[in-house]
Predict the 3D structure of the following.
Amino acid sequence: MAAEGAALALGLGLAASACASPADRFAQRALALGFQQSVVPGTGFAHVLFRRSGFPAGTLHVYLGGDGTPWLAGRPAADPTPERPLELTLMALDRAPSVYLGRPCYHGLADTPPCAPPLWTSARYSDAVVQSIVAAAARVARDAGARRVVWLGYSGGGTLAVLAAPRLAASVAVVTIAANLDTDAWAELHGFHPLTGSLNPARQPPLGLFQRHYVGGRDWLVPEGVVRRGPIDGDSVRVVPDCDHGSCWEALWPAILEEVRRGAGEGG
């Protein structure tokens, strides 16, 4: 009976896990890493926030996640939240005061007004999305007592980091991994429809901040050529031959953070 009970409990646990939404699984991963969850307002949108407890700081690291699953079986996904949250793993390796700032309509908020599918599909990098991210980050930084903000974005989160950083006066650095920095070139490369309604980083003024843009030599999804077309300093691009879009970055992250700490003049 004990064995049968254990098997039943395991089966129920697996069934519950299978039924959990991407937002639920993301939150479970964050909580397992010791992060606390809350919600912070932006401009017109709410943003789910994950952070460690108690982190007053002069410099705050703001992590932005990837696009997740905008489309599912040819239709806009009901929940675009990333299924493989690399950015949470990276933030867990970061000893600096850090937050993961969720995107509008992600993390279980897709059904809350004014959310609509374009905001995680064709307009995923729209002015409204960027402005709300900036407002939410400014609020979090102010509440943390931070005078400086370092933006760290993975994949589509890197796209948003490049778009958001110039709008926040406290920004001192931008770090991207596998970031789509020319959405038109990227769409043409893969035969996708253009991201109508989105801002294209390649059409923005050059970044005037310390910056590093990392790209995997084996990344077919966002290759080096797409990254270099962004509004960036060409010398800031770092190609890592053995990395692809999502693998090997954890091992490199401590060294990347140290380079950023020195370059951005972080002192607390």
